[in-house]
């Protein structure tokens, strides 16, 4: 979802070679963000660059595929084709570069674009041959073949999750996140905002739903449960990652003009999670049905580490962070966590990769 309107046209640089190399100086030092999280560094190397003629911008979802590789999804792409970028990433010192691109195509082979695709959630399926990508517009979860980018399938979405008047969802507040369990059997599709019947409480906290799908990687998945999730007041659920069979990692975000962004990351317990599929409205649901969460860190508390913001921010490290991905284990038992900001193709926002070490206990 675009939280900010670009104030000016993005300045686009032309790549001199077919492989984009990191041009920004990687940050070498970080520091504690909380007792359970530390910033290892960040890189602005992708900001206002192009690859094979396409802007490397609007990156809204990230999936780690190996120790030094990841895939990033572009969101609302206007008239440019929907696409994913292959990335080479390094944790410390933090660096990133584009290593490839796949145009996402309809079943007939023509490219999707901003008129019918707003990519927000991404899962690279086992074997790295296919991806699942959500679009906020309907919403939808489509499967694409990475060899040629062609759509080869689509997951069912419960009718009430369709955008009104077809369903109870609000435009631009549907499937903002998609996560997969380590065994590939469970998918978690998170709503950015509430269904009309669920609404917002007196403390300005929305009552969101997360759909759990069950199936096999590369094959069919079906909805098997729904969970209730309540973001902090005024924030929206924008990302999920699966940390274990009993724990998710979530990210919440908002933007306040003349102040900047708020970005918070939580651990979320699935232990004794209540299936709310048959609950017509969460408005009167007891607090016990909502997933329990714990703040892992607030990005504003991380050391700026030399970061420069292009617009007002409470910490110059902050920007419109939309993507979150868990990597492997680091020395000492902490997990690698990457964040990425979506510059909305705007001159006053930055495409920035963040590298952190987190203790998920």
Tell me what you see in this structure.
The chain is mainly β and 361 residues long. It contains no helices and 23 strands. It has strands at residues 31-34, 37-43, 49-51, 54-56, 59-66, 69-74, 83-90, 95-103, 119-124, 130-135, 140-145, 151-154, 175-180, 186-191, 208-215, 221-229, 236-244, 247-256, 260-269, 293-298, 321-329, 335-341, 353-358. β9 (119-124) and β10 form a beta hairpin. It starts with 30 loop residues before the first strand and ends with a strand. Mean pLDDT is 92; it is low at 1-28.
Summarize this entry quickly:
This protein has about 350 residues and is mostly beta strands.
List its traits.
361 residues; mainly beta; five-stranded antiparallel beta sheet; four-stranded antiparallel beta sheet; 23 strands; 0% helix; 43% strand; disordered N terminus
């Amino acid at each position: 979802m675009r939280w900010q309107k670009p104030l000016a046209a993005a300045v686009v640089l032309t790549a001199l070679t077919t492989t984009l190399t990191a041009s920004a100086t990687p940050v070498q030092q970080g520091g504690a963000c909380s007792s359970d999280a530390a910033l290892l560094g960040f890189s602005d190397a992708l900001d206002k660059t192009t690859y094979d003629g396409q802007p490397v911008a609007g990156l809204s979802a990230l999936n780690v595929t190996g120790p030094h590789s990841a895939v990033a999804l572009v969101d609302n792409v206007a008239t440019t084709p929907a696409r994913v970028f292959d990335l080479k990433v390094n944790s410390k010192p933090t660096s990133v570069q584009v290593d490839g691109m796949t145009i996402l195509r309809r079943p007939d082979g023509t490219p999707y674009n901003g008129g019918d695709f707003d990519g927000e959630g991404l899962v690279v399926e086992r074997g790295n041959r296919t991806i699942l990508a959500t679009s906020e517009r309907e919403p939808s979860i489509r499967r694409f073949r990475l060899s040629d980018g062609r759509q080869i399938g689509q997951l069912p979405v419960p009718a009430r999750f369709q955008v009104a008047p077809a369903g109870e969802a609000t435009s631009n507040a549907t499937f903002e996140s998609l996560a997969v369990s380590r065994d590939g059997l469970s998918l978690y599709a998170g709503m950015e905002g509430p269904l009309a019947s669920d609404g917002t409480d007196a403390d300005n906290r929305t009552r969101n739903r997360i759909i759990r799908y069950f199936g096999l990687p590369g094959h069919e998945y079906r909805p098997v449960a729904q969970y209730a999730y309540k973001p902090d007041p005024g924030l929206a659920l924008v990302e999920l990652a699966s940390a274990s069979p009993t724990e998710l990692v979530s990210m919440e975000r908002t933007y306040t003009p003349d102040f900047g962004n708020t970005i918070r990351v939580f651990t979320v317990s699935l232990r004794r999670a209540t299936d709310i599929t048959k609950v017509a409205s969460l408005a009167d649901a007891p607090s016990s049905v909502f997933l329990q969460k714990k703040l892992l860190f607030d990005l504003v508390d991380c050391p700026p580490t030399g970061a420069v913001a292009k617009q007002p921010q409470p910490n110059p490290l902050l920007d419109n962070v939309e993507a979150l991905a868990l990597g492997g284990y680091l020395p000492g038992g902490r997990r690698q966590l990457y964040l990425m900001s979506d510059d909305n193709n705007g001159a006053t926002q930055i495409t920035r990769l963040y590298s952190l070490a987190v203790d998920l206990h």
